Structures are given as C-alpha cells and as structure tokens.
C-alpha cells in the first residue's frame, strides 16, 4: 500500500506581535498601580513641607528685617520733629508799669477762658483792681514749672503785688507762658507737637479706645475678633463700613508702609503690629499713635497728632479741651477730610455725638454729662491754622538761628525756640497796617506798601515786624531787605553831632535859615529848600529840629562836618558802607532798611546806649537742655547828655512840630518822634519812641513812584493807629549829670539870647557847672555894678 505524502504546512501571514507581559511582570505592574495614591499624597506632603520651610524661612528673614526696622525706628528718634517757635515770655513783677487791661489782653491772646471763679489751668477772672488766674504748666527755657494759682493786684501805677493763692504768700515774679507761634524746618509736609503719653487727657484716650479699638489692652497687636466682627458688619451692609485693624496695625501702616490696598501690605501690617506689641509696652505704642494719627490738613501741611490738632482747631493745649471738643477730634480719626469741621460742621457734629454716645455706653460719661456735651456747639476757630505765624519775623529768626545758634541748632530734632516777639505789639501793628494803608491808598493810589519794625527801647529785642501791606504774605520782606532813602530821619544824628560839642552848640544856638547853593564836583549846583518853601532868617537849633527845617540842618551839618556826622551815624548803628559822604546825605539821601533805622533809633531812645537788635532769645532741646541763650546787653556809644538833648528836641517834634498830630491824645506820655519824607514824596517814614518801644514805620511803592504822602500824612497815621490799640508808656529819661535848665530872652527875630533871669527855659549841657557859676556870679552886687557902670 502506498504511503501518503504529507501536505506542506501553510505559512501564517505575518502579524505585528505585541509582546505580552510575563506573569511576573504583570504582578509588578499591578503592585505599582496599587501604591500610586499613597505616593502622590506622600509627595505632596513632602512638597508642602519643603514649601513650608521656604515660607517659614522667608517669614523668619522678613521678621528679622522688619524687627530691625521697627527697632531702629522706635529706639531712635521716632519722628522727624519740626522746631517749635514761641513768643517772648511775659514776666510780671511787683512795681512793674503794666496795666490790668494789658495783662487781660495778654491772657485773652493766649486763649485763657474768663470765668467767675478759676478752677483749672488756663482760666482767669478779673475785677477793676485784681486778676485771679491759674497759670498753665509750661516748660520754660529755665526748666518746667507747674501750674500756679495766683492773684495779681493793680493800682493806677501798675502791678503792685503777686500772691500765690495756694501757698498764701507773696511772689517776687511770675512768668506767663509764651504764645505758640508756629514751626520751622520740617523735612516733609508733616507737622506735629510731640506730647508724652501722660500729657494726653485720659478721657480722650478712653474715647479713642471705645471708638477705634476697645480690646487694645487685651490683644497682641492683631485682633481676630475685631476682624471677624468687621466682616459680619460689612457683609450685612454690602459694603465696607467698618475696619478690623487695631490701633497697632494703623500705627504700623502709617509709620512703615504705604497706603496701597493689597493683601501683601495687610500681611506686612499685621506682622509689624505683632512685632510692635511684642517689643514695646501698650502705653509706648499708644503714645506713638496719639502723636502720629493724621487729623487733617491746612496750608499744604498735614496735621499729625492730637496735640497739634487741638491747637489748629481750638487754639488751646489739649489738656484744656472740653469733653465734647476731645470727642470731635476722636471722631475725625475715621476720615479727617470727610469730617472737616470747617467745611462740614453738621457732619462733624453728628460724628462727635456718636463718639459721645459710645462713651456713655462704655460708662465713660454719665447720661447727664452726655447731654451737656452733645448740646454744645463745635466752638472751633474760624480758620484752621497751625499758628499765627508772622512771615517777616520768621525770616529774621531763621537768619539769626543760622548766624548765632550755629551748630547748636539742628533741624528735625524738635527743638524749642524762644523769641522776643511781643504778641500784643505784633497783633496791633498788623491791624494798624491792615486798617490804615487802604485808607491812605485813596490818596496815594493802589499798590501802597508798608513795613514796620518795633523793638524794645532798652534791650533792642524785636517785638514786632511787618514786611508788607499784606501782613500774612510770605514774600518780599521790606522790613529787612528794602533799602530806601530815609529823608529827615537822618537829622537827629546831625543835631546829636553838634550837641556833643557843648562849648560850641546848644539847643538855643542860632542857625541860619537863608537860601544857599552848593557847587558839586562835576559843576552841578545843589540848592536845598525847606518843605514849605519858606525861609525864616534865623532860628534856634531846637526849633529847626522839631520843625524838620532843611536849610538850617544843612548849614549845621556843614559846620559840624560830614566826617563827624558819618562817625555819629556809625556809632548809632549804621554801616559805614551805606553812607556816601556828600552834602545831600544831610537831608537823608542815605538808603537804609526799616530794620537798620530801628537800630539807629534804639540807640537814641536808650539814651545813647546801643543794644544789638535780636529776635532770638533761647534754643532748648527736647531734654530741656539750654543750647543757646541771648542776654540783652548795651554799651554807651555817644554821650548821654548830647543824646538827652537830642531826644528833648524830638519830643518838641511831637508837642509842637511835624508830629503834633499825636500830642492832643498823648501829651501825658512825653513821646519823642521824627517824621521823614524823601524826594518827591516817594518814601514816608516815622520813627516813634515811647517808654516801652521804638517803632519805625515806612510807606512807599515798589515801583518807586511818588505817592503824595509825607511822613506826617502817611507813616505817622499808621503809628497813631497802632498807639490807639497799644497805648504807650510814658517816656521819661532821667536828667543826666551836667544837664541843667538855662534861661533865655526871646528876641524879636525869634532867636534866643542867654539871660540868667530870662523867661525862656531851655536845657543845656553845662560842662563843669560853668553856666550855673556864671549866673551866680552875675547875681552878686559886684556884677550888678559892672553891668551898670561898665567896671
């Protein structure tokens, strides 16, 4: 049987074979699949841990940095503090020639409250002969003094007695605190009066905490409860109506951060708040906040701190504000622009009353106290201002701080500067200028400018300064920088030069009043004339001075000599470089500023003793250390006798000469004065002297055009108005040795002839008693026989 052949096997088509996993591999894969969720979370935790370490490191580094920043700021000088400027300190003493009315005006200017019975510092009462007051505590240049409860007794001669009501004993003197004038040299637009924590009224602090941060003393700088409460309130209102920031956070933001509204800023704010609360006491933080908080703006300057705000809005120290006034300031913290009492008084009153209600709810106030406080008006000042700053005076003060205090004066360190400014004199001088200059413009034309410099007659301390007709305008200071021809104000120096030679000249010396012409070096001719264009032939020296006659003055000056007159001017305080020695100088072609003229007339008014003018009294640092002090000093520069006789002639100017406008009202005061008018009436001057002050007044135009005003019709009228508000003191210079009364006969031509029995009495400088001896000799029988028979 035949064997069958096997058919060949069919070749299967090629396929892409997927490599199958072996069982072992499948097992491994399934294991991995099972472990992956745990690995994910483990990896996430590791990543989170690492990120936490990074964040923690960042927070630690940031904390170290912020802690260093906070520490450097708080442990050093927390604020850049401006220099605080005060007026002169009024010192009262028994026997002082000061009236009860003047002291009352001083107290009113310092915002003392007149009450029936003083109970608190800053209050006073008065009768016709007494003033009872409680003087405020104040840190004077000699050191701090507590409040003083005193009684001042007056009579017609002035202050007679000062009694300490607490100690029941008499006092030798009493200092009244100075007026706050303003600030200097702030490095930015922030201004503040720094006060210590204990100087803020506790009731105000309680009101602030009740309104802004009631848990301040419990939380650690950040209050989660306050944040949660704010979130609930805001959610209900549908908008942001309440913040959750603590006072510490607000302080952190104000001191260290910007006002950007970002989460990062809020985190840093909270972090700094925690650092502040950890490092410093609650009272230290609160003190910083009370001095830092923003409370409005005035004149481009931000008001920071409750201490300055009290002065700006109420004009009083914060310790003296009523509860309702303190509540108003606390209410302004929420939004000083929105709650501006000058612009939105009704809105501010509503906010104030809300603060008062919160105080009642917290039992800080009783219901009766709340009702009384809420019923009061706001009682804010008419105009919010940091100070009653006088720009012209401050310019002078800045210069003196630089020149005199030198390195002792440091900007930004909160120094206290005591000046010589008299608030009453400054205020009344400003009112006189503001009232009279517009009246004079009706005659002189628009654009009439003015300047005044008022100095203490004896000490040379500058009591007031005005640099222009707009008294509060901080511009060109004409009192210091405007040099104008002084006209007849030069004449007393000429007469003084002559009277220094008593063997040649006296007040009775006859002077020629006849036409004269003087040839100049370039062929020009100078022909001086009297203002009234008249000539009197011959006149006594005192008459020429009192009537301000030009021609007799020129004749006298030429006889004395230009060198001698120049020497006298320099002794009186004029810089020699200002003097051009030509004959026209005798009629005041010399150009001086009112400040320079004030120095010249201070020396005359002080009997020939020159006291350098000054506006700066003392500089004290924040620790009470006296860095600089000016002691008034004067020195004799011209003979007392000659000066006394010159002043006698200037008193005649007021009693019967060119300034007699004053005499009808002030004859009792024996004022001395001198009018001055430059060529074509371009400048109107008056120099007035009473027992207290020397006042120089100038009127003119910046374009130097004529203004139809003389010294009598212009500057004198401003000074007279000033005296109507600031009554003068009697000006009585004691008679010097060797000055005596001489007798004269008045001749038909109005000249004086010496006669020991004459009816005209004129004081003279009787050197070594020669006049007296001669008259005694003439009264002997031998002298009579000689006069009768000629032997």
UniProtKB/TrEMBL annotation:
Kindly give the Pfam families that the UniProt entry links to this protein. Transgly, Transpeptidase, UB2H
Q: State the NCBIfam families in the record.
A: PBP_1a_fam, PBP_1b
Gene3D superfamilies the record matches: Biosynthetic peptidoglycan transglycosylase-like, Cytochrome c1, transmembrane anchor, C-terminal, DD-peptidase/beta-lactamase superfamily, Penicillin-binding protein 1b domain
Penicillin-binding protein transpeptidase domain residues: 451-680
Domain Glycosyl transferase family: where? 188-359
Which pathway is it part of?
A: Cell wall biogenesis; peptidoglycan biosynthesis; Glycan biosynthesis
Q: Where is the active site?
A: 212 (proton donor), 488 (acyl-ester intermediate)
Gene Ontology terms: biological process: cell wall organization; peptidoglycan biosynthetic process; proteolysis; regulation of cell shape; response to antibiotic
Protein name (database record)? Penicillin-binding protein 1B
The entry lists its GO molecular-function terms as: penicillin binding; peptidoglycan glycosyltransferase activity; serine-type D-Ala-D-Ala carboxypeptidase activity
Q: Top-down, what is the taxonomic lineage of the species of origin?
A: Bacteria, Pseudomonadati, Pseudomonadota, Gammaproteobacteria, Vibrionales
Alphabetically sorted, this entry's keywords are:
Antibiotic resistance, Carboxypeptidase, Cell inner membrane, Cell membrane, Cell shape, Cell wall biogenesis/degradation, Glycosyltransferase, Hydrolase, Membrane, Multifunctional enzyme, Peptidoglycan synthesis, Protease, Transferase
Where it mainly occurs, coarsely classed, is membrane
Domain of life where this protein originates:
Bacteria
């Amino acid at each position: 049987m035949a064997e069958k052949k096997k058919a060949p096997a069919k070749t299967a088509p090629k396929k892409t074979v997927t490599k199958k996993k072996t069982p072992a591999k499948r097992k491994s894969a399934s294991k991995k699949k099972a472990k992956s969720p745990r690995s994910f979370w483990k990896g996430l935790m590791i990543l989170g841990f690492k990120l936490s370490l990074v964040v923690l490191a960042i927070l630690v580094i940031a904390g170290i940095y912020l802690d260093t920043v906070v520490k450097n700021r708080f442990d050093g000088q927390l604020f850049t503090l401006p220099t605080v400027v005060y007026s002169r300190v009024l010192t009262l003493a028994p026997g002082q020639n000061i009236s009860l009315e003047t002291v009352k005006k001083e107290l009113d200017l310092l915002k003392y409250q007149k009450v029936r019975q003083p109970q608190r510092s800053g209050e006073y009462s008065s009768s016709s002969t007494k003033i009872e007051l409680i003087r405020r505590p104040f840190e004077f240049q000699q050191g701090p003094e507590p409040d003083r409860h005193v009684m001042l007794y007056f009579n017609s001669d002035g202050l007679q007695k000062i009694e300490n009501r607490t100690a029941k004993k008499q006092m030798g003197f009493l200092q009244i605190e100075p007026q706050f004038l303003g600030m200097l040299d702030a490095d930015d637009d922030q201004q503040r009066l720094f006060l210590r924590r204990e100087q803020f009224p506790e009731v105000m602090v309680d009101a602030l905490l009740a309104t802004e941060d009631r848990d301040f003393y419990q939380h650690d700088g950040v209050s989660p409860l306050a944040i949660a409460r704010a979130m609930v309130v805001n959610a209900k209102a549908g908008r942001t109506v309440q913040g959750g920031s603590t006072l510490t956070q607000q302080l952190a933001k104000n001191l260290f951060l910007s006002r950007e509204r970002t989460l990062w800023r809020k985190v840093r704010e909270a972090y700094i708040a925690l650092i502040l609360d950890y490092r410093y006491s609650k009272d230290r933080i609160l003190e910083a906040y009370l001095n830092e908080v923003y409370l409005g703006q005035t004149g481009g300057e931000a008001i920071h701190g409750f201490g300055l705000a009290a002065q700006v809005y109420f004009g009083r120290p914060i310790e003296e504000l009523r509860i309702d006034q303190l509540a108003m300031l606390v209410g302004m913290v929420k939004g000083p622009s929105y709650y501006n009492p000058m612009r939105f008084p009704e809105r501010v009153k509503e906010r104030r009353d809300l603060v008062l209600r919160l105080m009642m709810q917290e039992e800080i106030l009783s219901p009766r106290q709340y009702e009384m406080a809420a019923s009061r008006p706001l009682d804010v000042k008419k105009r919010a201002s940091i100070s009653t700053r006088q720009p012209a005076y401050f310019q002078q003060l800045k210069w003196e701080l630089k020149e005199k205090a030198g390195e002792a004066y440091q900007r930004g360190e909160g120094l206290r500067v005591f000046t010589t400014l008299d608030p009453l004199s400054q205020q009344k001088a400003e009112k006189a200028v503001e009232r009279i200059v517009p009246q004079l413009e009706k005659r002189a034309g628009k654009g009439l400018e003015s300047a005044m410099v008022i100095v203490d007659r004896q000490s040379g301390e500058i009591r007031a300064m005005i640099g222009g007709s707009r008294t509060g305008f901080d511009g060109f200071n004409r009192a210091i920088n405007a040099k104008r021809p002084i006209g007849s104000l030069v004449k007393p120096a000429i007469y003084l030069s002559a009277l220094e030679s008593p063997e040649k000249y006296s007040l009775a010396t006859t002077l020629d009043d006849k036409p004269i012409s003087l040839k100049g070096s370039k062929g020009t001719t100078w022909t001086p004339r009297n203002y009234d264009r008249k000539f009197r032939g011959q006149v006594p020296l005192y008459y020429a001075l009192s009537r301000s006659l030009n021609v007799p003055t020129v004749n006298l000056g030429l006889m004395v000599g230009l060198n001698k007159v120049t020497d006298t001017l320099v002794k009186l305080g004029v810089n020699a470089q200002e003097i051009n020695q030509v004959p026209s100088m005798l009629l005041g072609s010399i150009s001086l500023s009112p400040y320079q003229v004030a120095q010249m007339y201070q020396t005359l008014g002080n009997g020939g003793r020159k006291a350098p003018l000054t506006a700066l009294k003392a500089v004290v640092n924040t620790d009470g250390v006296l860095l600089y002090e000016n002691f008034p000093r004067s020195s004799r520069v011209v003979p007392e006798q000659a000066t006394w006789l010159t002043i006698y002639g200037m008193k005649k100017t007021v009693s019967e000469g060119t300034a007699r406008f004053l005499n009808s009202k002030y004859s009792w005061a024996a004022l001395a004065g001198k009018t001055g008018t430059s060529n074509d009436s371009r400048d109107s001057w008056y120099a007035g002297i009473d027992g207290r002050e020397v006042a120089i007044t100038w009127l003119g135009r910046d374009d130097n055009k004529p203004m139809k005003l003389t010294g009598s019709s212009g500057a004198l009228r401003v000074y007279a108005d000033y005296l109507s508000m600031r009554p003068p003191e009697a000006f009585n210079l004691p008679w010097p040795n060797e000055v005596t009364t001489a007798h004269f006969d008045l001749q038909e031509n109005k000249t004086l002839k010496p006669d020991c029995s004459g009816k005209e009495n004129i004081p003279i400088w009787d050197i070594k008693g020669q006049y007296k001896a001669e008259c005694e000799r003439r009264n002997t029988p031998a002298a009579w026989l000689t006069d009768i028979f000629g032997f």
